[in-house]
Amino acid sequence: MIGFTLPVAGEATLTIQDVTGRTLRVVKGQFAQGYNQVTVKASELNTTGVLSYTLKAGDYAATKKMIVLE
User: Fold this and answer.
1) What are the chain's domains?
2) pLDDT tens-digit series, residues 8-25
3) Taking phi first (over 0 means left), then psi (-120 to 50 degrees means alpha), and beta for anything else, what does residue 34 get?
């Protein structure tokens, strides 16, 4: 589960990539103002290890890392 806070309601895109930069999953949608969560199952990613995810919403973008275990 990936959580994030938006200052205003609107469209956001969450992109999950492996260490080589290969895109594993993209989630686009309309999200509410405030705290939101996106559920991503490890089985949907078909990989383990260190992954990065980028959230883009309007002029804002942030990238974080996560570890996926078996």
Assistant:
1) 2-68 (2.60.40.1930)
2) 999 999 999 999 999 999
3) left
